[in-house]
Amino acid sequence: MNQRYPTARPTDADRLEELDRDRLSDPDRRSDLDLPTELLNLPWIDPHNHAHTLSWGDRERYALSGCRSMMMVSSGYHWTPYKPVEASDVRFLWDDAINRRTAIERNHFFEAKLGLGIHTGVRIEDPDDLLAVMDDYCALEEVVAVGETGVTPGQHVERWDVDEQQAVVGAQMEIAADHDLPVLLHTPNTSGESKRDYRDGLGVTPGYEKNAGLGAEPVLDGENPALEAVERDVEAARNAGLDEERVVASHADANNTAYLMTETDCYLSFTIGHSWLIGVDAADVANAIDEYGPERIMIDTDCANVLRTDPYAVKRAIFELYRYGIDVDDIRTVVYENPRDVFGLAE
Ligand SMILES: [Zn+2]
């Protein structure tokens, strides 16, 4: 072997040169791959997180890894202490996010817009009081979507009749349609199999700070309650006169992807900031892009302080999608252009 490098004995570098000279057609064995360095600086958008609940350090991680814009979602029972929840409790969450948003932008340089909604994971006693004021909130420039919301098969602590839930989801969709805002759906997941059960009393999901034992009996108990919930959401959108392309179904998974892609015009957002919980990662995103194209697909982190979540998830996925064979243009479509266009972010 001719040694080109002044190493004591031949290294891989010499052997790779030799392989390249032989012009091997197997790209795995070539050293001169044309790696897309633009991925290092590709701006990305996180269209679903709860970054206002994170630490300063976690928000800085978004900035350090190239997040250009995000939608901080302010809805959700995780942050309301009293159950059942009153309208004023949820309104406080909305107001808290509005109160802190500008300081977050000034500290971290990325754009931070808001999604406001009524989550159905816990029963709200007087949802009409929220719906009555929601119109004024949706008129705000910083509010770019309604949500997250969507029919939930089972509540925390106390059940919420499924038709009542659907009515509240539909009413929010009507307000969204009036304001030409998209709606972010929280679609229920069918989580991956765990290898082993945890000790009694320690919760089913360490990594999720929730008293899981306080779950109420489900209100949907058919064959596939998670999918039935999404079908009800789509029905609610149709009844509300909200265009399906203004609906983004977050937490897309194997249970709802085919339905949403083939029977609706909704967008799908794959939540990959807590893959350990819902079992969805960049491989699922790549498979969906292969099967359906990138036009209606996004990625979000859903990072929140009550969960073990990863603010770097989208940045990691950008490289992982490329490794899985997805083109740079399609990656840009999924992590930047689609959320930009649907939510009006980073304009
Ligand atoms: Zn969320």
TrEMBL record:
<feature type="region of interest" description="Disordered">
    <location>
        <begin position="1"/>
        <end position="30"/>
    </location>
</feature>
<dbReference type="InterPro" id="IPR012022">
    <property type="entry name" value="UCP005295"/>
</dbReference>
<feature type="compositionally biased region" description="Basic and acidic residues">
    <location>
        <begin position="11"/>
        <end position="30"/>
    </location>
</feature>
<dbReference type="InterPro" id="IPR032466">
    <property type="entry name" value="Metal_Hydrolase"/>
</dbReference>
<protein>
    <submittedName>
        <fullName>TatD family hydrolase</fullName>
    </submittedName>
</protein>
<dbReference type="Pfam" id="PF01026">
    <property type="entry name" value="TatD_DNase"/>
</dbReference>
<keyword id="KW-0378">Hydrolase</keyword>
<dbReference type="InterPro" id="IPR001130">
    <property type="entry name" value="TatD-like"/>
</dbReference>
<dbReference type="GO" id="GO:0016787">
    <property type="term" value="F:hydrolase activity"/>
</dbReference>
